Amino acid sequence: ELPMTVRTLSEAMGRPANQIIGTLMKQGVMVRINDALTEELALEVAMELGVELEIKRERDLEDELAAMLSDEYDEGAELEPRPCIVTILGHVDHGKTTMVDKLRSASVAAGEAGGITQHIAAYQVDHGDHRITFVDTPGHAAFGEMRARGANVTDIVVLVVAADDGVMPQTEECISHAKAAGVPIIVALNKMDLEGIDDQKILQQLATRELLPSEWGGDTEVIRTSGETGAGLDELLDTINITSELQELQTNPDRDAVGVCLEAFRDEGRGVISWLIVQKGTLEVGDVILCGSAHGRIRSMFDEHDNEIEAAGPSTPVKVTGLDKVPETGSHFFVLDEIEEAREVAEKRGHTGRSAYLAATARRPQTLEDILD
Ligand code: GTP
Ligand code: MG
Q: So where does GTP get bound (predicted)?
């Protein structure tokens, strides 16, 4: 960006440069025709010469995007309750997938259950008056990845701890992630159907990690569950509802959507498929979106059962097609008015290496140290 000079100001005001130089000289400022001027000086000269001068800055789209994420953006808007977004974390083999499958099969038709795609990043379960969105990240690494990008979508973490194994290294990492993200942790003490479980020992382990169980007077809810038999899962859902009610989760559904990309890949037939979760607003087929350094117009949209849908409100996970390339996991998406705007930012990000930097941090295996750096 070029600075304003006496020459460009003279052209803009339609006054000879000498007049500007003379005016400034009277104020004790000595300048030549190619010298740069501050905005302040330019405005003073204009006032002195009786010219109305408006200084326009180049639009900074990145600033406008950041503003779309802020609370101020929705000031005065009518806010509505939104589903709670729950991420399930825990040590390998402690039963996360079995638990989410069980939760899910309880809420979908039996006939449907068999045909569901293997790799699901997020889905919704209705319980009581509430709809709950579960985010099934491939593990704590993905959770950390999103946090590293400032794209934390999680309202509550359910920490799965197998009762026969107890708190393990990855359990501890998950606790750190959740604490750093500042979200409430509900512990699912899992595999309670196994013989010879010493649950007191595990409560003790939790207590020493600053997760004092409520039954011991602390404020961490520990729910005894079995993903295998389904025992305790109703109580787990109840506890999620109570916890989310305290958070008073609400947002503006009537605005251009923003959210986060959970996962994306290239499909032979359909092109780029992106799992997005809407945070604010309503995402619609035909919307122009920017996501990381990818952009495009949403061609089609699918819900978690692969049903084609037209629109998706807050906290809803959707699969969309139409992006020009695979967006970075954990990057924010934005709905914009013009495809040219989206292209401009996407290209800029691609060139300046901003997204290259983000992609590089994402590809690096995430450890606790990375996150706390
Ligand atoms: P990763 O995705 O590899 O981290 O594992 P996970 O946490 O998703 O565990 P997964 O659900 O795959 O379960 C691991 C093993 O534990 C499987 O053999 C399950 O059958 C078994 N398992 C899961 N939940 C329970 C449970 O509640 N009781 C018993 N007895 N076994 C369980
Ligand atoms: Mg699993």
A: 90-97, 136-140, 190-193
Q: Judge whether 18 and 3 are in contact, CB under 8 Å.
A: no
Asked if residues 140 and 92 have their Cβ atoms less than 8 Å apart, the reply is no
pTM reported for the whole predicted model: 0.78
Beta carbon of 232 within 6 Å of any ligand 1 atom: no
Taking phi first (over 0 means left), then psi (-120 to 50 degrees means alpha), and beta for anything else, what does residue 110 get? Answer: alpha
**Residue 113: which residues within 8 A CB-CB, separation 6 or more?**
104, 105
Contact in structure between 290 and 345 (CB atoms under 8 Å):
yes
Task: Compute the distance between CA of residue 1 and CA of residue 15 in angstroms, rounded to an integer.
Answer: 23
Ligand 1 center to residue 227 CA distance, Å? 8
- Residues across the chain: 373
Nearest CA to ligand 1 atom 28: 191
Residue written as token pair 């604010």: 280
pLDDT tens-place string over residues 283-309: 999 999 999 999 999 999 999 888 999
Q: Which residues make beta-bridge pairs with 13?
A: none
Q: Return the closest-CA partner of residue 324 out of 304, 302, 352, 350.
A: 350
| Run of H or E including 8 | helix 6-13
Helices (H) and strands (E) in the chain, counts: 13, 17
| One-letter amino acid of 191 | K
* Contacts with 361 (C-beta within 8 Å, 6 or more apart), sequence order: 145, 148, 149, 370
CA 326 to chain centre: 17
CA dihedral (12, 15, 16, 19) positive or negative: negative
Question: Taking 70 as the threshold, does the pLDDT of residue 373 lie above it?
Answer: no
